[in-house]
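Suppose you are handed a protein chain with no further information: no name, no annotation, nothing but its sequence. What can you learn? This example shows the usual starting point.
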Amino acid sequence: MEKYDYLQFPNGLKIVTERLPGAASFAIGFWFNVGTRNEENINGIAHFVEHMIFKGTGNRNAKRITTEIESLGGYLNAFTTKEYTCFYAHGINGNFDKTFEVLVDIVKNPAFRTEDIEKEKGVVYDEISDTQDSPEDLIYDEFESLIFKGNRLAFPILGTKDSVKSLRRKNLFDFINKFYGAGNLIISVVGDIPIEKIKGSVEKYLRDFRNSGLPQKDLFGGSISQKFHIRKDIKQSHLILGKPVDGYSSKKRIVARLLSILLGEGSGSKLFQTLREENGIAYQINSFINSYFETSAFGIYLSTNEKKFPLALELIYKEIESLKNNGLKADELKRAKEYLKGSYILSSESLTNRMQRLAHSLSYYGRVKTIEEIVSEIDSISPQDILEFSRKSLNLEDFSTVVISANVDILSKVA
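A reasonable first move is to predict its three-dimensional structure. Written in structure tokens, the prediction is:
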């Protein structure tokens, strides 16, 4: 049975920990509830700030930040999503104090030197170009831009080259002063580290950390179905069709997750078996659900050649209608449940994954959901729950579609 400890300081800073007696290493994350959907003026600034925080402080240059952790056998990294940013490390127990102090330094005292800003713009330009050059990556950004149009969830995490180009040093300081503060920070730790030690480190290094509250969300109000084509001189045709469904704030989200698994996650899924195994017409076919606080992007992704595109669409539509009309067999739902439960259990083998799950759960639910609780929720879903959700959510006339192909006329084949 997992055991978690939680502590909130008067300034709003939160600590959540899982003590693992005997563990030789620890994972720690500084989790800020701010991401792309909090960008008010410049798209891409949340991601750019994440990059720049590693470029130096008043105490350390970029090389020293990295080498101080790596020379102790540790690892330091970060990532940005549309709703949060996480700076994290994995280290050996005896090096917890140094690791904590380095993480504090980079988030509390970034230098944001002008020359570093201009250099890093070039790095992010290349990152954006890589996405633009890869239809498999670009189509997911374009799909969310389409279905979340009018809401900041539509913004790409990387921003655009023009928006990144417009960034100035003052913009970065304004951003961290507003969002990178005690009231918006969760410190998550997994390992054999007592919470008293973590509390002492917070009191030592973050007593005077800047104040901030939780940012307000620009809640998504819904969208209408649309079609969008991007012409690229490529041999394959790429497609995503789907719509917004329930997010983390809804109990229906886990039903949507199981539905995605049934349709197209894993080699035993309906779409994989029908399109790839039985008909051999698509190498890449899968469903997905990208979840946010109040909504999720649910979709089906396909890549195939232009000649096979109409048949592939026909088979996708057929599987969707079959699920809505006939429901599913008990063994199909059992496979989906075991697949989902397995993903949680297997990910818990990683201290870093466990650390991120604690912060994620606290951020979205206000508490830590145990693995046992999650498994119980999964087991409680019935075939009737899936059928009702399918009939409500899998109406093709409500789907939006993005296609990337050389032939613009291919969009006319989409229902």
